[in-house]
Amino acid sequence: MKLAARLPLFALMAGFLLETELIGAEQSPRNSNGRAPISRRTDGPDSELVRLRADVIQKMKDARTSAQKLLEFHEQERKQLNEEYDRRRELYHQGLIARAEVIQAEQAYAKSILRAEEDRRWLAETDMAITEASMRDELLRLPGLAVGGYSETATLLRYNGAAAWSLADAPKIEKFFRQTFGRALPISALGQTGTHDRLRFDHRDAMDVALHPESKEGQTLLNYLRQVGIPFIAFRGAVAGAATGAHIHIGKASPRT
Predict the structure, then answer these.
(1) Over the stretch 34-92, which tens digit does the pLDDT of each residue have?
(2) Which of 40, 121, 127, 149 would you call most buried, defined as having the most Cβ atoms within 10 angstroms of its Cβ?
(3) Residue 201 carries which DSSP code?
(4) Under a CB-based contact definition with an 8 Å cutoff, are residues 177 and 231 in contact?
(5) Is pTM beyond 0.70 here?
(6) What is the spatial distance between Cα 44 and Cα 85, in angstroms, rounded to a whole number?
C-alpha cells in the first residue's frame, strides 16, 4: 500500500500519543466559613488510558475497513491488467504490436501484484495489532505463570520459558522453521514498530509470527519453543473488526510503556 493510503490510519491514531496524566481531584475556592469543599472525583490515569486505547482500537478497525476496500480495488485493477497483458501477448504473437507494448503491460501487471500483496500484508499486521490491544486487559487479568508454566484459555496460550530470550536468538528459530517447512518464518514484527509505539507497547525484545497457533506449522513452532524454553503468547484471534488476528508473540508479554 502506498504511503498516502496509510496516512489516514496514522492521523487517526496520532491523538493517542497526546495522552496526559489526569489530576486526581479538583478543588474550588474555600467557602465563606473557611471549610474546604468536598473534592470532585475524576477518573484516574489508568481509566483514561483504557478509554484512549479503546478509542485507538476502534479507529484502527475503521481504518482497516477502508484498507480492505482499497485491497478490493487493487485486486480488480490487477485482474484488468492481467487481461490486458494476455491480450497484448496475443497481439504480439500475431505480429500486430511491438514487443515494447507487451513489456509495458507486463510491468504494469507486476506492479499491481505487488500493490495487492502489500495491502494484504498490511491488513494482516493491523489485525494482529488489534488482537493484541483488544486482548491486553484479559491478559493482564490472568494469574502469573511460574517459570516453565503453561496455560490455555479460549483465546490465549501462554508459556513462561526459562530461557534468557532476546532478539539475538531469532535466527535459530528461523533456521528451525526453514529446515522443517522449507520456507521462511513469516515474521510480521521484529522488535519495536510504529504500531507498537502508538499503542504504547514495549515490543523491543519480542517478535510476532503470522501463524495460527492451531495450524500444523503453528503447533510445530510452539512445541519447539517449549522444548528450548523460549516464552511465548499465542493469540487464537476471534476479535471483532479483524479478519483473524491470530499469531504467535515470541518473548515476554509487551508491557505498557
Answers:
(1) 444 433 344 555 677 677 777 877 887 888 888 889 999 999 999 999 999 999 999 99
(2) 127
(3) B
(4) no
(5) no
(6) 61
